[in-house]
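Teaching soon. Got one?

===
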Amino acid sequence: MDNLSFGTDEVGLVDMGGAGTNGVGAHGKSKAAHNPDKVVAVLGSGDYGRAISRRLVSAGYNVLIGSRDPNRSKIKTLVRQTGATLTGQDAAIEEAAMVVVAVGRDHYDHLPLSLLQGKILIDVSNNTERRKGPHYRSNAEYLQGLVQDGKVVKGFNVLSAYALENGGLQGSKEVFLAGDHADAKMKVSEMVRAMGFHPVDWGNLAASRDIEDVPLRLMPSWKRPVAVVFGIFVFLWILAFFSFQICRNIQSGQWDENWKRIPLTNFNRVIAITALWTLAFCYIPGKYPYLHAMVL
């Protein structure tokens, strides 16, 4: 599956005031709802932050994208396309019940941590490499350590920005969740369903270590099929080599013929036959029960 891209995420200590910008969205006014549970702050205005904001807006949530520099014209233009409200990070956090932390782990220390206390924090970050060891903590666990009174829930990291924008039309619609607070996971699960995805509870926050490793796995369920197909290819290539090169040269008594066929003719034939065998192995077993029922 594709890792999260934080692109131009705006992180760091925020502009407290931002007069003339805080609380001003694409339509020129705050979109904060009367129902605080439907207000979500997204910290980070990069590719992923904007993608999840757009999806949340489509799901009926009032989204406040918190940026450390909401006055930048480029950010205003990009955020306007999402339908969310662009504001400073402080203002976004204060109005929201849930906060999506769409910045990298290295930037957690620069967030307004005191304002995040008591909030439901959704950590969507990914690792760039697998980290193990007795003292290893996942990104979500690290964030929980910084905001001890917050309720951190790991989620959405297995979805790319493309999947969020397209509603999971291609790829999995499952969103793995992990957290130590059942009430927080319940609210995040409701959000996931509203966005058109399926929440899967992986347990407490320690399970976030495994969730963060999921995008780093290269097609884990493909190992055996790839080995089988490779085995078929090798078998057919050896068969073709003996048929076209060894046997024919023995018959002709000359050993200077057909060698030029190895890189092109042999390879093309073997690839074609391997494809036919693979398709046969995939589809013929499924047809057997129908044939068996017709005969009986």
Remarks:
- The beta strands are 24-25, 39-43, 62-67, 85-88, 98-101, 120-123, 151-154, 174-179, 198-201.
- The radius of gyration is 27 Å.
